[in-house]
Design a protein that fits this description.
By secondary structure, the chain is an all-alpha fold. The chain is built from 5 helices and no strands.
Length: 123
C-alpha cells in the first residue's frame, strides 16, 4: 500500500517530471551536437571535392608544362631556337622613330603646320 501512496504523491510526480525534463534536455543537447557535426561533415566533404577538382586541374597543367610540345614552343618563342634543318623567316617592320608617323617624313611639314593648313588654308 505504501507503494501506491508513494506513486500517487504530488512530490513524487514533481520529482519524476523534473527528472524527465532533465533527460529531455540532455537528449536535445546531443541531437543539436549531432546536427552540427553532420553539417560540418557535409561542409568538409564539399571542400574535399573542390580540392580534388583543383588538384586534378593542377596535375593537368603540370603534365602540359612537362610535355615536349610546350618545351618546344617556349624554346622557339622565348629563346629564339630552331630545330635542325629548319628555316626561319623573320618579317619585321622598317624602323620608325617614336613620334614619327611616316607622313611627316614624306611632306616635310610639322604637325602644327598641317593643323594650320587644315583649319585656315582649306578655303
Amino acid at each position: 500500500m505504501d507503494r501506491k501512496i508513494l506513486l500517487s504523491s504530488k512530490i513524487t510526480l514533481a520529482i519524476l517530471a523534473v527528472f524527465l525534463g532533465f533527460l529531455c534536455n540532455i537528449k536535445y543537447k546531443q541531437w543539436a551536437s549531432q546536427k552540427a557535426i553532420e553539417k560540418e561533415k557535409t561542409s568538409l566533404a564539399l571542400q574535399a571535392d573542390q580540392l580534388d577538382k583543383k588538384n586534378q586541374e593542377l596535375d593537368q597543367s603540370l603534365s602540359y608544362l612537362n610535355s615536349q610540345s610546350f618545351k618546344e614552343r617556349v624554346a622557339r618563342q622565348q629563346l629564339n631556337l630552331k630545330k635542325d634543318g629548319e628555316t626561319v623567316y623573320n618579317f619585321s617592320n622598317p624602323q620608325v622613330s617614336p613620334g614619327d608617323d611616316g607622313a611627316n617624313q614624306k611632306s616635310g611639314k610639322s604637325n602644327i603646320q598641317k593643323w594650320w593648313e587644315y583649319f585656315y588654308d582649306n578655303k
